[in-house]
Structure formats: C-alpha cells, structure tokens
Amino acid sequence: MTQPRRQLRRVARVIRRVLAALVCGLFVLFAVLVVSGRWEALPVLSGSMSPGMPTGSLAFAQREPVGDLVLHDVAVFHPPGQPRVIYLHRVIAIQQVGSQVVVRTKGDANPVPDPWVLHITSSTVYIVRYRVPDLGYVALWVHSKTGREVVLTVAGLLGLALVLLVLRDARRAANECSF
Q1: pLDDT class for 178, splitting at 50, 70, 90?
Q2: Which end of the chain has the lower number of beta carbons within 10 A, N or C?
C-alpha cells in the first residue's frame, strides 16, 4: 500500500473516532441532563399546541425557578386531580397569592383557556425551551416493548462492531510496526 493511501486511511480512522466520540458524548450529556432532573423530554400527544408544537413533536423542557415563569411561556404541569396526566400549555395569566403562584393556561389551538387554575406549590417548574417535530413518535416507539428490544439489540450490535473495529485497528497497527 502506498504511503499517501495509508495516511488517508489513518485520517479517515481518526475522523470516524472523533465523530463517534461526539455522538456518544451528546447522548451521554443528554442522558445526564434528563437523569439529573434539569431537563425533561416529552412527546406531544395532542394537537392543542399546534401549529407551533404539532402532534408527534418532542418538547425539551428545562427546570427553572417559579420566579422565572413569564407570560407566554409553555409550562409542563399536571392538571388538578390528575397526577398521571401531563400537559404542555401556554401561560396566559400569572398571579402571586400569598406564598403560591397561581397560573392560568391555554393550548394554542384551543378556543378557550383551560378550565382549571394551577396553584404552583413547588419552587421550580418545567418550561419548554425547544421542540423537534416528529421526534416524539420515535420517543414513544422507543418506550414500547418492541422499541426497547430493538434499541437494546442495536446498541449491543453497535458495541460489538466498535470492539471489532478497535481490535482490527490494533492488529493493523501491530502489523505496521513489525516491518
């Protein structure tokens, strides 16, 4: 093999490793932020926030002090009496009542405000900062039984492929040094 071709392969190998490290780093960073509770990733399951957040979007919400909540933010909350239901609706009114913050919300596509008033008793609230269209469908699928099995299988195969690539590169490097 010619020297320029060998150098080109080395450069390509370094680029592959750097890209793989960047992708892995981003996934790890995202996982740490979500596991730490600083961020949440939530699929948008209805059209109540269309067109800005259509059904199937993935919303990324950041935990902030309640004092940072302002009019027109999109907040993440449980409607009163429904602890298993999560809404992402726009804040249309904020009031301080004693030590509590009282909030009115409305879905952008809904003709009227939500029928409840939220009494925020915690010191923090999740506020939607980013959204990615259609990625929510992927998130829902990944959390299904089939999705988990596929993701774990693919992750295992990618891990195996990475190990094989490292072993192959080590063997090649050893062969190049033996001349």
Answers
A1: low
A2: C
